[in-house]
Design brief:
Oligomer: heterotrimer
Strand content of chain A: over 45%
Strand order of the largest sheet of chain A: 1-25-24-23-22
Shape of chain A: globular
Largest sheet of chain B: 2 strands, parallel
Helix content of chain B: over 70%
Chains: A mainly beta (about 425), B mainly alpha (about 280), C alpha/beta (about 230)
Number of strands of chain B: 2
Largest interface: A-B, 44 and 54 residues
Number of helices of chain A: 5
Number of domains of chain B: 2
Radius of gyration of chain A: 25 Å
Amino acid sequence: MKKYSKLIVLTVVMLVAWTVFYVHAHQITDSFVRFSIKTIEGDESLIEHVVIRGDMSSSNFTYEPFVLTKDGTTFMRETSFIERISDYHKSEKVKQLQLKHRQFMRGKNVNSDNYATTDDKIVYADFIYSKFNFDPEKVKIETLDKNTNEKKTAVIDNPELNTFAYIEKVIAYDEGVYVAVENYLDTDYETDMNEITWNIYHYEFSRGTFDEPIVVSLGKIPSYNNITQFFVDDENDPKEMIVLAGLIDYAVPEDEASGFPSYEEEIVSEYINLSAIKKVDLKTGNVTDINMETDQNGIPVGYNGKELLFIERNAAGLHYHAYDIETKKTTTIVSLPLEGAIVSYWDFSEPIQDGRLIYTLLNSEYGDNKMILVIDEKEKELVYKGAIEPDRLIENRNGDEMIVYFNEMEIVD
Amino acid sequence: MKNYLKLLNFEINRFSKLYFLMLAIIFSVQLISVFYHIFSYLAFVKMETKGGRMTPEQFLAEHFPFGLSNVFYTRGFLIPILIGVVGLILYVFFIWYRDWMARNTFIYRLLMLPTSRMNIFYAKLSAIMLFVLTTVGIQLIFLVLYKKIIEWFIPVVYRDDLSITMAVVTSPYLNTIVPAHLSSFFVAYGLGLAAVIVVFTAILFERSFQLVGILYGLLYAVFSFVLFSLPLVVQLLMFETLYLYADEMFILMTAIVIGIIVVSLLTSRYLLNHKVSV
Amino acid sequence: MIEVKNVKKSYGRKAVLRDISFTAKKGEITCLIGVNGVGKTTILNAIMGLTPIDGGEILIDGKKLTKETYEKVAYIPDSITMLPSMRIKDAFAFMNDFYTSWNEKRANELLTFFKLNLEDKINSLSKGNKMKVNLLLGLALDADFILMDEPFSGIDVFSREQITKVFTSHLIEDRGVIITTHDIQEIEHLIDQAVILDNGIILKSFYPEKIREEEGKSIIDVLREVIDR
């Protein structure tokens, strides 16, 4: 036995050290703050399909992604090896499509904006690039019939897109598909302005051809702090679309002494400056300008074929407005007090329209106002309000502040 | 099995002196470095807060507290690890060549043992893996000591009491030798094992065919590497997006690695039994 | 019986063994004779599977070499096969660990015979004593055959005498021995079969006793004859 002493000692030391380490590593998420969605008012079933992606970071702990659903928080390190190495950050929608239609989804882009689904179809749109050319050469649409598993491909040969072009939305309805592409024509580096168009391509299944694209010019918008949005009146039967561009601007003047306003001052002075709102008639291709004759706007969140919907944030709280394009009148749907919390427009800049429901993730970096709000734009009421709450106080060790971001919200079918 | 264990024990005993010397160097340099950084930090705290110029809170608003992470990024901590890594990589070659190159030809004895020659191969392979895993294991144990030392010397107000596990899994350097998940551990050290097997096979090519064997060995190693990375390279060059799903890619690459291991072991067995020469 | 049949071996373009065939029997001492570099060591290495051959066949008691062969055939190369850092007792322990045919009693007997000490470190020994340890490690195995490569090369005269005594002692008994040498005088009287090698071929293989009786010639006379031819 003595002869084997070194071998035994080394083996035991190795096994003990590694085992203890992995037992601890396995339990490491026990020390993490977990979040849950606590319903304050409304119908809890509305958030059944909400998936929120977030991450925690601190000076030591650089990055810990997690997913929050109504069932609670799952950290990336709690998932399987395969899940960790596959694109952990891809959307749930794409994950589910990959799971159900593995062959169709093979080799396809994982950006959920490139997909649309109907009861019996999956539609995928993407660019085709030729070698040595950065401009998209073609726009390709692939359709899968879920019932027959039949796959069809259609291609637009000369989409006339520039290098910086992005598929922002694919809308599939019973008869056809719309692909909305944001296309950066030109950047003026001196003024830092981008010239943008939205090109809308339409493909009809029965004809098997593409129509001439509708090109909506949004003019020049600043490269920074801009917002561009795209809404459709009814995803299942689209007749009109709204494309708009604007800017989250700051009213606060530079302080002469420090040169810059403080972050808080900046947030308080934020306002929305909408530079272009265009309504597109999808049947005729006509594009009309909408001039809002009110400064009661906010972040645009949806369109119901009659009214544009906004969320405004001011000292009194959050306000959901509906602006009637015909009558040019604004009605307030819901107002919510914010109890003194500082909320930036950036904290809810990407609301989701899911049929008649509009989901907003309020993700204030300051304070505890992390919320999910759902309004029913038809009934014009707040139908759900839930707070995202940590299961314990977020512990900030000596000089090491833990920051939690809720980056993205998704509604899964 | 019995002979394999005897040979493994023999390899361990044979390298133990050098190994313990290497451990002594690695961990004494690290210890010195830990003390150096603790005392530098304390001196800095003393200077900044002298005569009530700053409260601890004010100090911490401007500077980081002291914890294990402060030690991790220092040269005194990383260079010894590098020494260990380089030492063990050299050992992969040394473990074979010393049997031929020494003044006395121990390889005669090894090849004439009344046991399968692959036992020699497996013993050498296991010895390397054991030394590597034990070195990292001892590093983990020493982290406990460093943390204790930090607790003894740094007042709690200036201390960042990050747990060892947390400190390790969040350190990009240590994370490469101590993967944060057990599954990643098997993947990382499995690949390491495969790499050592391929290098062993290459060494046996050289030992079997001398000068031209160097070429065979190099070609074998390069071929194995190319084969291993082929799915990734093909995927990146031929498709704009990933054609294979992550699980398929993982299965394919695992199959390739297992294939490389099996072929290497069979080749090594053939070379050891029929081609290798004293 | 060790049968070497039509064995060929080249190093690159240089043919070291062209077509070597001979048989070594149990109870006989077979001596491979030739100047340095004629391939004597290569033959022994080939028998032990330490150097691959390009052609031909080697059979030990009618079978090809297996791992069990190493219990039956002991090889004593011209340099020591143990680690220089080992003490003689470590070498004994090592042999005892791996070889079932290791005979501890005979090993201790040889130790006394060669006047060696168990505590001696191998790298502190003289060349002659190292050779003795080497011999000891081979002879202490209960092997049917013993292969010795140049056991007298570069060692002092007293050591030579001691080693020579081994051949006539019970330590060899009825085992088969293959010995290589370029200097025949020392052991001429012990040899049962002589195999004269030159340039990768066997010039003559004969029983010296028979030639002495029938033709009145010594091994050296025959050696002169075949080399002059």
